[in-house]
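quick one before i forget lol
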Amino acid sequence: GSAGAGRGNGRREALPVQLGNNGGGAGSGGSGGATLPRDEPMWIEIPEDADVPLFLNNMPNDAMVVSTDGNKSKGFYGQADRALELLLPSLGIEVGDVEEVVEFQDDPNWEHFPAIGAQLKRIASAEECICVAVCRTLGVWAVGVGMKAKARYGAAKVALVGAMVVAAAEVGDDIADFAQELPAMAEFTEDCQQSREAWLATAAE
């Protein structure tokens, strides 16, 4: 199966995680230990036999992750809502409210998504709160990580934008160009595509 295979298709073991540019991260997180690299795209894959809630039913096994400490030093966090407003119509989704097609589930204690937590611990040992974002229409999901609720919600939204752009590129869909209006988001989504390619290349080895 491919890395984008859906749950229930019967496939190989989970792919290795793709570390960010600064390796295992720095500093301490919620439970002590190394934290995830901040403000950059990472990828995880949930094993086929993992126990996941219905919230991720019919979603692919792999997802993008973005971790943040909430300082918003990166401009793309403030551009996520506008990016979705531009992106969704270009993918054929006409909605007045982004919340109609994007769902969020907060999981600060890993009660709902322990399988996601297990994959994050393969990258860094600190146990930090997560928020999962899903767009069922496009079959894309993503994870935001952070100790502050608002910060991880924003990180999940940014990660979902990146995952949507990557998914569209993989099937050749034309999407909205962020470069002029949202340069920080445009740069971030380029990083997302590069990290995706690196992750898939590692998995193929």
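fyi The two ends are 15 Å apart (CA to CA).
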